[in-house]
């Protein structure tokens, strides 16, 4: 009887289980990494607020005085202390902005429908510009990366330890 040689052809089921588990964890890891790179923003006070005739256009925040909080109760609601939105124009007389969000003195936040308001300058305590914060973004990105690496190593360790056949059953 002739001796035949058996050759094993690698198939799809011959892959280690941890590579299959890695494939399913890649999508959430990539999504969270991309989300963390969006960045963090901070509000920086505008030194020497613009003089008359010089527009300040862009995202910003206006902090109202106590008199400003009382005066803006009609168009914005009661107890509004901070207004976030797009500053259309800031002159020596007034600040005109489209409101995106308001914050009350008790730190409650409300989203606005985009109403445009003109605020007299004596009612304004502070004007801040919204700017990208590299430090906050890097800190946040590092924290997300650390959490993802711990989660990935935990998933990898769990899938590597579960490569057995799950135990046998007792035969009678």
3D architecture notes:
With 172 residues, the protein is α+β, with helices and mostly antiparallel strands. It has a domain at 42-131. It contains four helices and seven strands; from the N terminus they run αββααβββββα. It has helices spanning 17-36, 66-71, 73-76, 134-161, and strands at residues 40-45, 58-64, 80-90, 94-104, 109-111, 116-120, 124-133. Strands 1, 2, 3, 4, 5, 6 and 7 form a seven-stranded antiparallel β-sheet that branches. Residues 50-54 have low confidence and may be disordered.
Task: List key phrases describing it.
single chain, 172 residues, 7 strands, seven-stranded antiparallel beta sheet, elongated, alpha+beta
The value of Rg in angstroms is 30 Å
Element order, helices and strands? HEEHHEEEEEH
Q: What is the distance, rounded to the nearest whole angstrom, between the alpha carbons of the first and last residues?
A: 39 Å
Low-confidence blocks of residues: 50-54
How would you classify the helix and strand content by structural class? alpha+beta
Query: How many beta-strand elements?
Result: 7
Mean pLDDT over all positions: 75
Number of helices: 4
Strand content: 25-35%
Determine the oligomeric state from the structure. Answer: single chain
Overall, the morphology is: elongated
How much helicity do the residues have? 25-40%
Question: Main β-sheet, in a few words?
Answer: 7 strands, antiparallel
């Amino acid at each position: 009887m002739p001796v035949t040689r058996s050759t094993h052809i690698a198939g799809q089921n011959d892959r280690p289980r941890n590579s299959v588990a890695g494939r399913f964890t890649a999508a959430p890891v990539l999504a969270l990494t991309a989300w963390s790179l969006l960045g963090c923003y901070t509000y920086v006070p505008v030194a020497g607020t613009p003089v008359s005739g010089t527009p300040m256009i862009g995202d910003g925040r206006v902090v109202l005085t106590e008199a400003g909080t009382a005066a803006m109760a009609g168009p914005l609601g009661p107890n509004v202390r901070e207004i976030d939105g797009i500053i259309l124009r800031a002159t020596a007389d007034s600040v005109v902005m489209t409101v995106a969000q308001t914050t009350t003195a008790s730190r409650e936040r409300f989203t606005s429908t985009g109403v445009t308001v003109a605020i007299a300058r004596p009612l304004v305590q502070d004007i801040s510009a919204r700017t990208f914060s590299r430090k906050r973004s890097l800190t946040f990105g590092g924290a997300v990366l650390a959490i993802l690496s711990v989660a990935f190593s935990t998933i990898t360790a769990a899938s590597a330890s579960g490569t057995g056949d799950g135990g046998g059953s007792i035969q009678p």
